[in-house]
Structures are given as C-alpha cells and as structure tokens.
Design goal:
alpha+beta; four-stranded antiparallel β-sheet; single chain; about 25% helix; about 200 residues
Length: about 200
C-alpha cells in the first residue's frame, strides 16, 4: 500500500534530498497513464522488472482505450490520471509514461528546488526476507530507489491546464520539457500546485 504524499515527502527530504535541496512536490500516481491517442499506455522502452502487483483501478472507457475521442476528451475519464504528449519514443514524457506504468501505484514523482525524479520505495522492490534473524543479517533496502532523475531545468515550464469539453473542466498540471514533450497529471488543485512550484524554484 503506497504511503500518503506527506509521509513520502518526509522520507524524500530525509533520504533523497541533497544538502540544501528542498522537496516541493511528492505526487502519487492515481490511475492509468495514456499516450499516443490511447490508454492505458503501452511500454516502449526498457523498464525495471519491479514485480509490483496491478492496483485495483477501473479500466478506461472503451472510447479512451480505443482512441475514439477528440482532442483532450480523455480528461473526462476518471480512470485516466496522466497523459504523455510526445513526437518520438525517446522523449522524456514517454519515458515517464513507461516508468509510471512499470511502477504502477508505487512510482512517485518528486520535484525539488534542484531536481525532478521518479522514485519507488526500496522496501517495495526488495525480495521477501526470511525470519527475524535472517532480516537482521541482511542489508536493509534504500528508503527510495531512483528510477529517473534530471536537473529541474529539464522542465521548461510548469502550468495548470483546464482540459476537456465540459462546462466544468478537468484540471491537470502540465510539465513541459525542453525536448518538446509534455506530461499532464490530474490535480484538482493544479493552480495551487503550480504556484507552489514557482514559489520554490
């Protein structure tokens, strides 16, 4: 069971952050990721073999899973949490979609005043251990294992975007990367999240 974002941010501040680095966001994936006009995303690059069980999320609607929708109507499907926009599989947003898909609900997005990272708790990735005495002799896993990281400047812009075609939009945070790709994730408080990022970067 994944931790809440406040506890994860506390762990990241203690064990992931470098001297002088401050954690700004700890974002939990809460649904499927889409890309290339469909959801769920299909992994296209090599990813860690994490062995994490599929969460009990509902599948996207047939219209979204088959790509039969217009523009950003996928945002109205509550099963979809994030979306990767890219022109080529080597772009950052596709890598994020791959890693979020491999890490399921255990992959977290961290934003600090220095870095962006995708991490998984080490105990999630550690193999099952034996009894009490065998545990005491074995090295303990790292609190957080980094699957991807880059300087915060890799993100060209953080922006709150209202998506969809209904009167009440669905709010997402969009991270635009210097390579021209972008990644959206669902956040009802997107405007506040973006203000928090801008205030701390």
């Amino acid at each position: 069971m994944p931790r809440d974002r406040f506890k994860l941010a506390e762990i990241a501040q203690k064990h992931w952050a470098r001297p002088g680095e401050q954690i700004v966001w700890a974002v939990e994936r809460k649904g499927h990721v889409g890309s290339a006009g469909t959801a769920p995303h299909r992994i296209v690059t090599a990813v860690p073999d994490a062995g994490i069980a599929d969460p009990e999320w509902p599948l996207p609607t047939a219209a979204v899973s088959s790509g039969r929708f217009g523009d950003d109507e996928w945002a109205h499907d509550p099963a979809v949490w994030g979306w990767a926009h890219a022109r080529a599989p080597e772009q950052i947003s596709v890598r994020w979609a791959d890693l979020f898909t491999a890490g399921r609900d255990e992959c977290w997005l961290l934003l600090s005043n220095q870095r962006l990272g995708l991490v998984v708790e080490g105990e999630v990735l550690a193999p099952e251990r034996g009894g009490l005495f065998s545990r005491s002799r074995e090295p303990q896993p790292e609190p957080l294992v980094t699957w991807w990281e880059a300087p915060v400047g890799t993100a060209r812009r953080f922006v709150a975007v209202p998506l969809g075609r209904q009167v009440e939009p669905e709010w997402f945070v969009r991270i635009e990367f210097a390579d021209g790709s972008a990644f959206d994730f669902r956040d009802p408080q997107a405007e506040q999240s973006v203000r928090t990022a801008h205030a701390n970067l």
